[in-house]
Design goal:
By secondary structure, this protein is α+β, with helices and mostly antiparallel strands. It is built from 1 helix and 7 strands. The chain has a single domain, classed as Copper binding periplasmic protein CusF (OB fold (Dihydrolipoamide Acetyltransferase, E2P)), CATH 2.40.50.320. It is elongated.
Length: 130
């Protein structure tokens, strides 16, 4: 009986000591700091300064509700622009090399309702596009 009582007391103590950690919620990560990663495939419809507008064909869960819509993607000095040629060779390009009508894959982060592209690749194997 004493062992059972001791075990019960230890169990209550452990539960009480762990509860505040669970109440604090998940550890901070990109999602809890307002930065949500996205990935999408689509076609460039416009380029205006450093903003590239893409009609979304497919993407990750975040992008799903934007299928068929145009999304303005902000670019900055950290954005990488890449071109993949017919032989599969990937090489860097610049924003000025992008053109409306090109099919692209894009990775980036959604921050404060702003779509910020971290990488735009032209000519990647885009199985979702004709």
């Amino acid at each position: 009986m004493k062992k059972a009582l001791l075990m019960l007391v230890l169990l209550i103590f452990l539960t009480a000591s762990v509860s505040p950690a669970y109440a604090a919620g998940p550890r901070p990560n990109d999602r809890t700091r307002g930065r949500t990663p996205f990935a999408l495939v689509g076609t460039i419809t416009a380029i205006d300064g450093s903003t590239v507008t893409v009609r979304v064909v497919v993407g990750n869960r975040l992008v799903k509700r934007y299928y068929g819509q145009e999304v303005p993607l902000e670019t900055n000095a950290a954005t990488r622009f890449l071109m993949k040629d017919a032989n599969g060779v990937v090489y860097p390009i610049i924003l000025g090399d992008l053109e409306a009508g090109q099919n692209v894959s894009v990775n980036g982060v959604l921050t404060d309702n702003r779509w910020v592209a971290t990488r735009i690749t032209v000519g990647a194997r885009l199985i979702h596009l004709p």
